[in-house]
Amino acid sequence: MNYIYIENKSDLRAYLEELADKGHSIIALDIEAESNLHAYGEKLCLAQIFDGVSRVIIDPLGIDRNTLRLLFESTGILKVMYDAGSDLSLLKNTAGIEIKSILDLRPAVELLDYEKKDLHSVVAFELGIFLKKKRKYQRYNWATRPLSEQAVEYALNDVIYLLTLKDVILAKLYARKLFEPFFLKNLQIQNKDYTRGPEDKYRKINGYSRLKDDKKAVFRKVFDIREKYAKLNNMPPHNVIHKDDLINIVNNPKFIDKIRFTKRVSADLAQDILHELKTALRELK
Fold this sequence. Notes:
Elements: E1 4-6, H1 9-21, E2 26-35, E3 42-50, E4 55-58, H2 65-72, E5 78-81, H3 85-95, E6 102-104, H4 106-112, H5 119-127, H6 149-157, H7 162-175, H8 179-191, H9 200-203, H10 213-232, H11 237-240, H12 243-251, H13 267-284
Parallel strand pairs: 1-4, 2-5, 5-6
Antiparallel strand pairs: 2-3, 3-4
Helix pairs in contact: 1-2, 4-7, 10-12, 10-13
């Protein structure tokens, strides 16, 4: 598969200037990220574009945020995306970047009530193109360099059909007089504040909301200890303590002695974690 690979700010600026010179104001856009799966934290790892002519891979790891903003925050480029909410949230909370001028096709799929609403199924239904669903790339380490050609192909497949799909879907919306609710939903997506509150990191753990206030205080302490060691050792938090065990520890402090650590946690590190957990729980009594 032929594509343009951009890995520095000068090449990205040149590409954006070329789009502007050609009067090209619409692209298909998607991103790939690391989200506490292979290492600690969230990070933008890749942006893939199809501008109607060229397939483009942008490697953001060597590009500064201000240059990336020229792409993502440009109001002069319409960005056709699919189910953009998680991408908007990630960029907002990890890089302080807001993606502007979005046309998200997922609300249209909801309004048109497709039986299967994932992108690959909609592409197959409307365009007769059956993309291979390779599960391994759903858990791929997108921070790895160099990326495999198969991974790049997988990433580009999420954008190269979006512009054609847009035309088909917009025609259906028009025929069914669904333009206005579609545009409203897009405005709601665009205008939503994706900034995460300090409590969000706790709330996303199943079982936290059902805890009483005193137990929530214990949970936060245990959770923060897990975060501390995950960050220090650059590993996903679930590799330090599984999320289910967080609730188990809160409900039964003796469960600490039953924690089974993954192979990534050394014996010495495990002892440090256990000692800090037990000390914290004694102080909270």
